[in-house]
Design brief:
Elements: H1 3-25, H2 28-44, H3 54-76, H4 96-105, H5 109-120, H6 125-132, H7 136-154, H8 157-160
Helix pairs in contact: 1-2, 1-3, 2-3, 3-6, 4-7, 5-7, 6-7
């Protein structure tokens, strides 16, 4: 990859990588740091990265940096365990987007990541498998489980309307 291609990669993919990261951690400053770290790693190895694979490289790097950051924070501040087994909502929401966002936050990290890559970023199962270092069948299972959880959590659409 050339320096011009690197600059083009920044223009083409920085917003998408940022959206992906910020959807997962809900902290703009941490997301900016993770995106910057991803591009820094790309800069260090730009000669070894094929421009045709730069999008996968960036998302994969951002994904792994994000996971490392989350694990580090969990070790540092082991406050209370998340209650992922709670199904259903009992709060009043103004729209389905709020309910969906709350439900997505309750997903395990890996399910949340693959679901966001598939449904928000439009990646194929194969691309997600490469980014997350899983096989395609694992990706499909995680997405299926995430969607089942979301369906059970949200319940009937009539309740929301």
């Amino acid at each position: 990859m050339t320096i011009e291609e690197y600059n083009k990669a920044v223009d083409l993919f920085s917003d998408r990588v940022f959206r992906f990261v910020v959807k997962n951690i809900k902290d703009v400053h941490k997301a900016e740091d993770i995106v910057q770290d991803s591009y820094e790693k790309l800069w260090k190895y730009y000669e070894n990265v094929n421009f045709l694979k730069v999008r996968q490289y960036l998302f994969s790097t951002a994904y792994h940096t994000l996971i490392d950051r989350i694990r580090k924070e969990k070790r540092i501040s082991s406050t209370e365990d998340m209650k992922l087994a709670e199904n259903g909502h009992n709060e009043q929401f103004s729209d389905i987007k709020e309910v969906l966002n709350e439900a997505i936050e309750k997903l395990p990290e890996i399910q949340k990541m693959v679901l966001l890559l598939r449904d928000y970023e439009g990646y194929s199962y194969k691309e997600i498998a490469e980014v997350a270092e899983l096989n395609e069948s694992q990706v499909k299972v995680y997405i299926y489980r995430a969607r089942v959880f979301l369906k059970e959590y949200i319940g009937s659409i009539d309740v929301l309307v």
